[in-house]
Amino acid sequence: MSTNAPEQAPVDGGLSNKGLSAGTVGLIGAVVIGISCIAPAYTFTAAVGPTASAVGAPIPAVILVGFIPMLLVAFGYRELNNRMPDAGTSFTWATRAFGPWVGWMAGWGLVVATILVLSNLAGVAVEFLFLLISQITGDPGVANLAFEVWINIAVCLLFMLGATWVSYRDMQTTQKLQYVLVTFQIAVLVLFSVVAIAKVVGGGGFDPQPFDLEWFNPFAISSFSALAAGLSLSIFIFWGWDVTLTMNEETKDPEKTPGRAATVTVITIVSLYLLLAVAMIMFAGVSTGELGLGNEDIQANVFFFLSDPVLGPLAFLVSLAVLTSSASSLQSTFVGPARTLLAMGHYGALPPAFAKVSPRFFTPGYATIASAIVASGFYVVMRLVSENTLWDTILTLGMMICFYYGITAFACVWYFRKQWFDSVRNVFFTFLFPLVGGVILAVLFVTTLIDSMDPAYGSGANVGGLGIVFILGILIIGIGLAVMIWQSFARPAFFRGETLGMDAPVSARRARAESERTR
Which residue ranges does UniProt annotate as crossing the membrane (predicted)? Predict the structure, then answer.
């Protein structure tokens, strides 16, 4: 770990460099890391079954509707990054727009959400590792080893250790690894889709369905609750694209590349999801039959149950793709919390140790290791307490994502308030799009918070009649508030706006003039 003293934030409250390896990530590299963080193979196999049960055949329509708030928020992220490329992203931008208190909580939401995901991804990687070995060896008993508590924990910690080692090294190592893992993952998913569609066209399939454009019609969704389920689904299957922004201080052309990478990433992912959804519906249908997408017995891992009927002897490739998806996402997900913690340490919102950058690899070494230790400890505790408790924490993830995505979207709207009507483009990209995206996420946050009060929500566990998901969500936000208040006494300079101050909005014309003057 680095022993060098962290760079100091400027005393005037402006943005500053943190010592990361500038110019090492290009557009393609950022997109690949973004796709890796989303983990399409893992997220889709876990999400497509429950979606089929909720809405039936219009799964593509749900994907498109759920894609809307993510795309709208992505536009807001892009505008903020164009003006303020900073590794702290949500933390930095919310601080500049609303002040240190809101900014600190936005950073807290991002860090907590990603640490929850890290622990879950490691657990998923363990299960699919043993599942893959079981398929290759033909011994079903091997798969059960994943559910032996101490074997599970030991292998999970090994996955976490490997991901931490790669993340601690330079971004070039991360890029090279992700090029291989993401290319393989997408290749297998496309192969699965093409073969499934080809078999249906050739007269095969479990419950073959002719292609129907009505699957893409949002108005074919039967109820508002089903539509709400689609929006909630988007939080799970699209989350992770914002990692492209957290690398902004390490990308080439940091004002433009991260925003473009975020847009390309979400469009690529939605296209892949639509292809997979169409292939699965055409091949298996949405009934509750043996291989139907509505069958609750296969919904935890739809790819596994369909892989053999679709790919035959190559079925193991699908399990390998899901394992690759979760393992690669485990590594790339470290990018987000490590750089947010780095920025918070750099600007004095957390202890200065978090601002340390490795002098050899130019990565946030201390913050990376801290994230790994917390995520590993969280996984071990939750696994020992209850597997269902771990699942409840993942449901809590949706609230945390809505929380910090929503704050960031509103930060875009407020920060650019004097530029809204400078051009038609500004009306949409700095005002309308992020505002609508933020409102949708705020509604989802409140709705989930209310629904999770019901003990039946999630695993069914409750404390004093309140659902455990609700309690976890409130507890996480409460802990964040307590730590923030503690830091306000320990590190008052940040909370007085001395290390990272609010940025007074200016008109687009004035911003251009100032930019020309400083060239």
Answer: 20-42, 54-77, 97-118, 149-168, 180-201, 221-241, 262-286, 298-323, 361-382, 394-416, 428-450, 462-486
Domain membership of residue 227 as a residue range: 50-517
Residue 177 forms part of a structural domain? yes
Q: Examine the pLDDT at 139 and tell me if it is beyond 80.
A: yes
Q: Is residue 129 in a domain?
A: yes
Task: Report the alpha-carbon distance of residue 410 to residue 416 in Å, rounded.
Answer: 10
In DSSP terms, which residues pair with 463 in a beta bridge? Answer: 466
Residue 19 lies in a domain: no
User: The pTM is what?
Assistant: 0.82
CA distance 352 to 355: 5
Q: Where are the beta strands (DSSP E) in 379-467?
A: 462-463, 466-467
Q: Cβ(436)–Cβ(76) under 8 Å? A: no
Whether the per-residue pLDDT at 93 is higher than 90: the answer is yes
pLDDT per residue over 482-519, tens digit each? 999 999 999 999 999 888 877 655 444 444 444 444 34
Q: What is the CATH number of the domain that holds 491?
A: 1.20.1740.10
332 domain residue, yes or no? yes
Tokens 């038609």 -> residue:
424
DSSP string spanning 107-146? HHHHHHHHHHHHHHHHHHHHHHHHHHHHHHHT-GGGGGGG
- Indicate the pLDDT class of residue 437, thresholds 50, 70 and 90: very high
Q: How many domains does the chain have?
A: 1
Angle between helices 302-311 and 257-284 (to 10 degrees): 70
Compute the average pLDDT of residues 192-197.
Answer: 96
